[in-house]
Design a protein that fits this description.
alpha/beta, 29 helices, Alpha-Beta Plaits, single chain, disordered C terminus, 8-stranded mixed barrel, 5-stranded mixed sheet, TIM Barrel, 53% helix, elongated, 740 residues
Amino acid sequence: MLMKDPNNTRNTAPRRGSPLWIYFVAVIVLGIATCATAFAGLTGDDLDALAGTPVFWILGCFIIFGELRPIITPGSTENNGATTSTTFSFAALLYAGLPIAAALQAVAVITCGIFRGRTPHRIAFNTAQYTLSLAAAQLVLALFGDLATPTDLWVPDGADLPAIALAGTVYFICNDLLVGSAVALHERVSLIKAVRFDLGYQVLVHLALLGLAPLMVIAMDRSAAFVPLIVLPFIAVYLNASVSVRREHQALHDGLTGLPNRKLLIVRTEEALAEARAAEKRDAEKRGPDKRGTDKRGTEKRGAGRLAPRAAFGPRLRKTADPPKHRAGLFLLDLDRFKEVNDTLGHPTGDRLLQLVAHRLTHSVRPGDLVARLGGDEFAVLLPSVRDEAAAREVAARLRAALSEPVRLDGMSFDLEGSVGIALFPDHAPDFELLLQRADVAMYNAKEARSGVEIYSARKDRNSPARLSMLGDLRRAIDRSELELFYQPKVSLRDGQLVGMEALLRWRHPDKGVLEPQAFLSVAEQTYLMRSITHHVVTAALAQAAAWWREDLTVQVAVNASGRDLFDTGLTETIEEGLLARGLPAAALQLEITERILMNEPAYASDTVGALADLGIPLSLDDFGTGYSSLVRLNRLPVEEVKIDSSFVGRLAESTEDAVIVRSIIDLVRTLGLRSVAEGVEDPATARMLREMGCDAAQGWHFGRPMDAETATAWLRSVYPGGRPPGTPVTSRSILTPPS
């Protein structure tokens, strides 16, 4: 269960008259009474000894420091870290008795509470909690006859260790029960569950801290100068723990925004899902077996086994199971048109904007919800507990409302919008990976519908179980470098010279052999995985282009962009960084975008397309003729090339209608001042007809089949024997004759 820190219940006073309020009052009153009783036994000599003995002042300083600077280990916080004050306050109890220990601990708790801005009720409760725990330990020591006062100091020996061990055990049990009861009332869980939370860690920590107290007493009795020497190991442990916590924080949090990253999101989501499963199981056990159709003795009622008329059941006839009562939700949120900010105001301003977004999101969710940054401008929100879809939509609406507030940076004011996809456990997915994938599908649908918020719907998800299995294989394929680029030449029909090479993705599947994109990309395009695939393709294509350019084979490499890629504001940045890292000009890479994407999503696509065009990346309109481009819209697109779909080109020699369509497209493209390229040319007759129609270039098996990088390199060397001087156009030799 994701329980709140036992020492960090809400920093607001409990409602007056509530069980938690009554409990707080009872503990505080009992603590005050205990303190009063203890201090009533002090004499004037005791007070003089307290004021005149340096060791008590040294102890007080270390107790305060121990409260203010707990040892924080990975997985803990300042509120549940190991407070080293326990060692010193327990040592004070052994050495000088309850009044001194309780007074020093109270001063430390009050000082720490004021320093950290805690409310009076928390400070009072924590003070009473420690006082009662120390008093319980004092009672145990009294049973053994070991009572100390400031004027009658007690230094234990080996025979006193059992009494000290029992007193320490009672101190821990009392302290844990007092805090656990508060947590149980606050969280509305059983006392056993509250006490068992993090019990192993707490036992280990208190065993170490309380075990050092007798050594501290012996050191104090020898000389106050020995006390700092015992503190040195605490300082070393504190520093080492701080380094470990810093490293853990860096590993689990985003460096820019400070939000949890994907790794921590996975951990927290799995914890939330486990708690939801456990809660559902507990409810099922409480309901017990279904006793419908049996009497009180468990025997079957008359007619219980017969099928009742349909009208008697009504809508219940279709009901097979009760809906889940315990749900968790996962949101995926993507900022719309964030790239405009980066391009207009620069990356530093974009980073500040992301920090502002992170701040707004974290202040818009409910207590206990988790906001994480997955990368770029994509965020995730975990709802460990959510009632239903309506409640999830309410949270999503608050997130979008927070983002919609005008932003003012560098003297400019602009609006932000975000698309949110929602997936619920167990309604939509049983685990984190599938939950994230379906939240991603919902977010993609929200972008397409421009609705802002979408909840996952199986009707809008084209993924079948087999496709989901392939998605898992594809995710592993990226890690195992099973994705590979093949290259197919694009040839000028006017003079037979090479125009460029198109990079075609292939998957060398360990069981199914080489798979072409249509066998797997449709699965990935609806998921967050598409970004990883695109990044791999762009990186591999640029690396190969750089290798060719180093050999003076200055070939332009074309890569295909999916619809999801155009929603990715980081695509332009990935390409720009890749070109700079390899010293390539923008003309070394061409991006092919299908006509249907540009026509169906002009608003979203135009942002990325415009940014790519501004970068100088040549753009090609792929599969032309399959969409519904208008002449006006085509004229407005920043493309340099139009590729005629192979479905028209393949029937060119057989269909008069297709020939008319192809000729019309070629004439239209020429009129707009663009270059026409025919796809799927597989025979000399088709190539000849296209050349006669005035088509600029073509590609297909007639000119060269897709080749892996090694084969393509050898082929290019045969086309350009000896290479070419840098800057020479890629037009050194006719290759209208198919390569052997």
